């Protein structure tokens, strides 16, 4: 493998994703759906882009904002929690922001939440006054405490935050909750959301220049198409002309339809991109309202 070139010498785009963990597979799948493909390298840390000059770097999620800030990577797929925490830490250190959220990606949903021992009776944030809170997200917690006007002690732990109350290191925790299984296993219950998070596409604050700008634009264009059609279906049907207004009212989540005339004018054929669920029940409703030959098709790609 040739060693990766420094930022200035690069005309290929480099995207950092999580090497293993919750976001790893969906991030890869999303990028693949945008037409990117990679030659697997033996060490699996750097994947050379085959179908486009877009390479992948497989790293720890916590390293992604820093890699973007340092220009080692151009883009990254990372949890909003990680991105905002590191932005908060930079801000606290008096450094200017270096990375930002470009797109929310709609997977890897979780929340950063305060969780207390199960036997606590939760009466509200004022209860936290003077308490010790264990977290790996000190900047986000600090901001929330300041906004809420609560003075508490933050105990910074790199991992295994959930066990801190049992070990007597803290009274409660501020940690990521996805399914809630980890908290439950540690006899903690979530009581307050500090941040709603999901996977995001992160990029630098400064715009790209040169060939990488074009590559980034291409990727964003395709990504926007894929994000738009994620829950979309193409609906086709026929109906008598006078039934069409009523039928379109039943499709509030549809784009303006394409309409053809059949049968010399009285019957129309319609095709509409629907952004919501097109269930059997909706099809039955449309049929009752005069639609015929209803057909629901998957949408593979969209380029606006
Ligand atoms: C988070 C968090 C918990 C767990 C919660 O860690 O720190 O350990 O997930 O998930 P659950 O509610 O589904 O049980 P994550 O897997 O994101 O790893 P990391 O924070 O070490 O990157
Ligand atoms: Zn991590």
Summarize the structure in words.
The chain is an alpha+beta fold and 304 residues long. It folds into 3 domains: 133 residues, Periplasmic binding protein-like II (D-Maltodextrin-Binding Protein, domain 2, 3-Layer(aba) Sandwich), CATH 3.40.190; 88 residues, 3-Layer(aba) Sandwich (D-Maltodextrin-Binding Protein, domain 2), CATH 3.40.190.10; 66 residues, Alpha-Beta Plaits (2-Layer Sandwich). It is built from 9 helices and 16 strands. The strands form 3 sheets. The protein has a 7-stranded mixed β-sheet, sandwiched between helices. Strands 9-8-10-7-11 form a 5-stranded mixed β-sheet. A hairpin with a 6-residue loop joins strand 2 and strand 3. The chain starts with 12 loop residues before the first strand and ends in a 6-residue tail after the last strand. Zinc ion binds next to loops.
Summed up:
This protein folds into 3 domains: 7-108 and 199-229, Periplasmic binding protein-like II (D-Maltodextrin-Binding Protein, domain 2, 3-Layer(aba) Sandwich); 110-197, D-Maltodextrin-Binding Protein, domain 2; 233-298, Alpha-Beta Plaits.
Return the CATH topology of the largest domain.
D-Maltodextrin-Binding Protein, domain 2
Helix content: 25-40%
Average the pLDDT over all residues and give the rounded result: 94
Q: What's the β-strand tally? A: 16
Strand order of the largest sheet: 2-3-4-1-5-12-6
Q: In percent terms, what proportion of residues is strand?
A: 25-35%
Q: Label the structural class.
A: alpha+beta
């Amino acid at each position: 493998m040739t060693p990766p070139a420094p930022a200035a010498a690069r005309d290929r785009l480099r995207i950092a994703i999580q090497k293993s963990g919750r976001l790893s597979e969906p991030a890869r799948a999303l990028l693949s759906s945008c037409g990117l493909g990679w030659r697997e390298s033996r060490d699996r840390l750097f994947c050379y882009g085959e179908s486009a000059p877009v390479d992948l770097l497989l790293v720890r999620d916590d390293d992604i904002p820093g890699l973007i800030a340092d220009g080692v990577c151009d883009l990254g797929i990372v949890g909003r929690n990680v991105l905002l925490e590191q932005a908060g830490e930079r801000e606290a250190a008096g450094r200017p922001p270096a990375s930002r959220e470009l797109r929310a990606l709609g997977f890897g949903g979780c929340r950063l939440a305060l969780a207390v021992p199960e036997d606590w009776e939760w009466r509200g944030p004022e209860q936290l006054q003077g308490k010790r809170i264990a977290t790996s997200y000190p900047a986000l917690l600090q901001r929330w405490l300041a906004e809420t006007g609560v003075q508490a002690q933050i105990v910074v732990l790199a991992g295994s935050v959930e066990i801190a109350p049992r070990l007597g290191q803290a009274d409660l925790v501020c940690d990521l909750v996805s399914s809630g299984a980890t908290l439950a296993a540690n006899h903690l219950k979530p009581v307050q959301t500090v941040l709603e998070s999901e996977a995001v596409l992160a990029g630098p604050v400064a715009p790209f220049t040169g060939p990488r700008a074009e590559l980034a634009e291409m990727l964003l264009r395709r990504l926007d198409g894929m994000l738009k059609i994620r829950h979309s279906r193409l609906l086709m049907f026929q109906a008598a002309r006078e039934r069409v207004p009523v039928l379109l009212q039943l499709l509030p989540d549809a784009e303006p339809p394409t309409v053809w005339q059949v049968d010399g004018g009285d019957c129309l054929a319609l095709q509409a991109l629907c952004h919501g669920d097109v269930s059997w029940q909706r099809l039955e409703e449309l049929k009752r309202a005069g639609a015929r030959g209803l057909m629901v098709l998957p949408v593979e790609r969209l380029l606006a």
